[in-house]
Amino acid sequence: MSAPIGIALIYSSSTTPDGPAFAGRSLRDRAAALARAAGLDPVHLEAQPASGTRRPGAMRPGDALPTCDGPVVVMRDDVACVAGVLRDLVRAAGQMAVRDDSGRIALVHAGVADLGGRVPASIDVAAEGVPLAPDPGWFRGRRVQALSYAGDGIPHSASRSAQRAAEREFLRSLDNPRDGYFDRVLNRRLSRPLTLLLLPLRVTPNQITVAALLLSLVGAACIALPGLAGPVLGALLLQLTAVLDCVDGEIARAKVLETEWGEWLDITSDTLIHVATFLGIAVHAWPDLGRATAWTLGALFTVGGLASFVVVTRAEKTEDTWKQSRDWRARLLALLLATLTTRDLSVLVLVAAVANLLTPLLVGAAFGAQVFWCGTLVLHASVMRRAA
Questions:
Q1: DSSP collapsed to 3 states, 231-282
Q2: From its phi and psi, is residue 212 left (phi > 0), alpha (psi between -120 and 50) or beta?
């Protein structure tokens, strides 16, 4: 992990050691994870500075801030947002304050000198004279949600009920910009209740990703069977893996467990699921096409799928360089990347299985994969030349 680029001063909403929880983590722990995900060193502030023994590493209002040339983000721990909010705030030019959906100050971006070199008495004091971001409850398209149940003194039953309501509300804001049509109308509607059920458990996003991959292999084996019932069952299992693919991302963002390894595993798993599915379809197509032709088409799709994985991964790593371009090539490249990462393919396989059209689907996918990766490669090379 790289060295922190700044400091996050975290005001606690609770006087208890860990306080209430959100998305399976204590607010204190989750706020620290958000800070680290944004490249900041988390510093917890004592809730009652005039009494009690100071926790190791904690600071109190009025304490001198450590010398730091980087940004200082002042934040409350009783606010739900994703790590991208803090990363965007850190990248923002100059001072800025963000309000939650209750209108209260939730985050403040400043510097050590802006704060007078000392820990401010409160987050409201830190925000004095600082420009406010528009649209309370949102920052650059991402939700900033107040957790009204987080304070001390709330009966446990009421707090628990409010917590679950807050988690449901938060999950509704975790859609992926690259979600396809069926993600929005089907997969997310199924994934959110499952995610809500899994949040309190010690389940990691990577575990769900691996489970989806294993389930897809069972689905591919069913698709390979002759007749109609086996392929339809396999296609339904494939559709379930699409739902789980939504769940792993939702849990990663809700629990602040996003990692580069997890992202790589997710992309690799998606590619392997596609390849396994169409190899299963190739076996199913033997009676119609003959073994040699079916395997040739399956091999063509496998090569195309792996080539697409390499090309798309390379294009995504350079996305910050080319995506801001208004050139039509950049817009088309973004559309192609969104097409590959969408989970709508599982619905197409299900429709083809029900209609007994898996063989034509295999033929189209085998040649379409070659067109996709070649076209994406040429477009990416073109937009990178123009961006240079």
A1: HHHHHHHHHHHHHHHHHHHHHHHHCCCCCHHHHHHHHHHHHHHHHHHHHHHH
A2: alpha
Question: Are both 295 and 243 inside the same structural domain?
Answer: yes
> What are the tens digits of pLDDT across the range 49-64?
445 566 666 788 888 8
CATH code (residue 141):
3.90.550.10
| Same domain, residue pair 119 and 226 | no
Domain assignment of residue 63, given as a range: 6-146
Same domain? 239 vs 134: no
Element (H, E) at 313: helix 291-317
Integer-rounded Cα Rg, in Å, for the chain is 24
183: which DSSP letter?
Answer: I
* CATH (domain of 201): 1.20.120.1760
**135 and 184 together in one domain:** no
**One-letter amino acid for residue 383 of the chain:** V
**348-385 pLDDT, tens digit each:** 899 999 999 999 999 999 999 899 999 999 998 988 88
Give the CA count within 13 Å in the CB-facing half-sphere of 313.
Answer: 15
Sign of CA dihedral 288, 293, 294, 300: negative
| In contact, 297 and 289? CB cutoff 8 Å | yes
Q: Determine, yes or no, domain membership for 166.
A: no
Residue with tokens 């620290």: 32
β-bridge partners, 75: 10, 107
Q: Judging by DSSP bridges, how do beta strands 72-76 and 6-11 pair with one another?
A: parallel
Mean pLDDT of the chain: 88
Residues 352, 356, 361: CA angle, nearest 5 degrees: 45
The DSSP output letter for 186 is I
Report yes or no: 6 and 72 within 8 Å, Cβ to Cβ: yes
142-146, 274-278, 309-313, 366-370, range with the lowest pLDDT: 309-313
Q: Say whether both 223 and 79 belong to one domain.
A: no
Kindly tell me the sign of the dihedral angle through the C-alpha atoms of 328, 332, 335, 337: negative
Task: Name the residue type at position 366.
Answer: A
CA distances from 30 to 102, 154, 367 (A): 20, 20, 46
Instruction: Say how many domains are in the chain.
Output: 2
Indicate whether 142 and 203 sit together in one domain: no
Beta bridge partners of 9: 43, 74
